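User: I'm putting together notes for a lab meeting next week and I want to include a structural view of one of the chains we've been expressing. I don't have a solved structure, so I'd like a prediction I can at least talk through. The sequence is below, exactly as it appears in our construct file.
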Amino acid sequence: MASPSNGNVALPMVQLNHICSPLNPTVEARIAAILWGPFPAQNDYTPEASPRPYFSYYTDQCRTVYYSLGTSFWFITHDAVVDMISAMRQGVTREELVQDVLNNHSIPASSPQFNETHIANAFVDLVARLVLMVEVGPVTKRVWSRRACRSWESGNISSFATGLFEAQSPNSRESTELSSNFNARNLDVIAGLRVELTSNLLDHLQVMDIEGVSTLMVFHHVSFLKNHGDSLFADGFVYETIQTLALLFPQNTWYRDSKAWYHKYLEPTVTDADPGVLSCGPLTMTSLDSYRFWHDRLSRLQQIFDQAKPRTLSQWWNDRREGTQWYALWVAVGLTVFFGLVQSIEGALQVYKAYHPD
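Assistant: Thanks for the context. Below is the predicted structure for the 358-residue chain, given as structure tokens.
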């Protein structure tokens, strides 16, 4: 059997199901079934329920780890991933998963730091990311170090997932209603936050400084959330996360503006952006205090939005939080422009008459 090289990796002929090989519909169906249960035929998906965005994430994760670990990871196949997903969902502990990899696979150690145990742990971390869409690591040669990451040390994946997002208690006893103008588009055009889609659930609703620009990260994999349910996460977590997306991409009077903004500015920035963010259903959680898991991040965003003051003409035009003041401002601007134009015309006529008295 040919050995893969460190440069352009040549896979053994028998590894047609290797994690770097393209996913075919049969393999996708097996992975989806083990993750979320039986799925309809590929052509029967609605755009909102399609797992296509998830499988783009799956492919990226597999390739990132493979090209980070090189020859040490050539033995991993899609079948091996499916088997480990099944074991994780059955409650097998991390320690048992690592030992199972060591017992059942011949792992070539490519260097002292990439020994058999390191490779086995990297495989378990990879599958944990595929199950939770959470950055579990660390991943060797991480491309973007700013991404939030958690280390899974021991126990089963359910206990790990439940502990990732702790319930939060509001500081105030008074209920705080979220503004009807509070959405992703307005956080961009009014508050000046750049909005960026992410596939790391840990980064959802985080405001980060990226190249000197305050950037709001939004987890866009709605189909993953709806298909996943609360089978591993804490009760109510998935529903609340979907509600944050219904808040950011509302289906109310802002729907048309949000949809146009999303398709123009966000959708082109990632491969297979999930269109489901635009149809997360009615917003039922309108009070900030009703959010247990995302309360603190939403509170910070609401504060940023409330304190934002228009600095550019575009922001003045889009900031309609104070409707009466907005109309008064632009009526005044319109009248100023109108009377200025009238005066300019009168002045031009006077100059013309001065040179042409007849």
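A couple of points you could mention at the meeting. Residues 25-159 form one domain. The two ends are 103 Å apart (CA to CA).

User: Perfect, that's what I needed.
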